[in-house]
Amino acid sequence: MGPGPIFWLHFFSLINHFVSQDEKEILSFPEVDFRIEISYHTISKKEREMAIHKSAEQQWRRSLRRNVINKRNKSALRSQIKKLNEAIKNKDQETAQKLLPLTFSLIDKSVKKGTIHENKGNRHKSRLSRQVEMINPSAPSK
What we know:
By secondary structure, this protein is mainly alpha-helical. It folds into two domains: 1-45, no CATH class; 65-136, CATH 1.20.58.110. The protein has six helices and no strands. The N and C termini lie far apart (61 Å). The relative contact order is 0.08.
């Protein structure tokens, strides 16, 4: 990701302050009205101006820590689901049956930690268990 709008705003203001009019014409920077382009939603989270309150700064630091934890949990969950999907793809029912409880446990932990929504966790578990059952379907009982 390249430099954000706040960077360019400061960059062009420095150029205007230190560069003479002749040099500006040579450099020919485009004129941009930053008041229109910059809004809360168009700049990255790190570039947003925050309140000066101590609690706001603490909350921002907490959100960054939680972001790292959530990314780690999601990555572990995705890796486990990929392993299970690979076993399903190779039609290896024994491995899939071993991986299924581990995957379910990881899904439940992610839901409990708030990394993913409860419905998404249930959807994953339902689809994965159905796919594992379809590898070698048991004979229907009479």
